[in-house]
Amino acid sequence: MRDWLQLQKRLLPELIELLKKRYTILHQIMLSDCIGRRTLATSLQITERVLRAETDLLKAQGLIEIDSMGMRISEEGRQLVRQLEPLMGELLGMRHLEESLRQAFGLSQVIVVPGDSDVSPAVKDELGTAACSALSSVMGKEDVVAVTGGSTLAAVADQLTSATPWKGNWFVPARGGLGESLEYQANTIASTMAKRVGAQYRLLHVPDQLSEEAYQSLKQEPNIQEILRVIRQARIVVHGIGDAQVMAARRKVDEATREELKRQGAVAEALGYYFDRDGRVVHTMLSLGLRLEDITRTEVVIAIAGGKSKGEAIAAVLRHGHEDILVIDEAAAVEVLKHSGLDVPTGRLEQ
User: Fold this and answer.
1) CB-based contact 332:308 (threshold 8 Å)
2) Chain segment 274-298, per-residue pLDDT in tens
3) How far is 265 from 269, CA to CA, in rounded Å?
4) Which of 98, 128, 171, 313 could bond to 268 as cystine, CB 3.0-4.6 Å?
């Protein structure tokens, strides 16, 4: 494919640029569900006049629909976007980003989706779809899958489908999560995933963080011990990555601890552990569930994260080095490379 693209670039460079422009417009309309011309022009940083000419052509081809509410992609347009994805991944630089990240952090697989989930919520759905594909590719029979909470994992649960029900598989929360918003709790996500694919699930009904007294008491409970044994049998772990201070605030961590996190240089949080820029663990939440030693023994660890604002956090967790598969959006991928002092591929083919 790359040889063909190089030939096209040399013989018809204007065709390549036009293809990229029209695909980007069509893809953004698909992600947005319904979007106005002015909003789309601002998002893509092109003039409304140029955009009008392009969208009129896309409408004439039956690829989008336009009404008083805005522009929507047609089913034919959606199919075309999916068919073009492998080619456009090469043209737009996604494959370059994937390979750069894979080599930099010793990952077995990296999937980069276009866009920035900080700006477009629909990109988070694309992350969810890509993560589902990654999970399906490694899922075996009678596997136990441990999942964390958060909005990104909720997007994965919403996108998960399976033509072949995973009846022998189990989904479990990686750790306690009571206290979070219900839809973002690990228990909710684990049960949703299981129901969508016909699998089974177990729940861990304990708070996200515990006092020492509560921790020592709960871990002696036979029911808690039994579910923890199941969780620690997980062959696959799927987790998100958060900014340290954002996650501390969301979990209502006390002010003294938050100041200590700042003093220790914490920039990232994953699985209840806080990491500094070098990937060192600087603080651990007292909670029940998977421990770091369990995660390092897990056969497949899938991290899913997106948004330009999380670039430094994602880089920190990757430096710790317990991930095998990374699913990330383009904006975050670029920031991870920048924070790692690595060259950022431009996505343009060399002459």
Assistant:
1) yes
2) 999 999 999 988 778 888 888 888 9
3) 12
4) 313
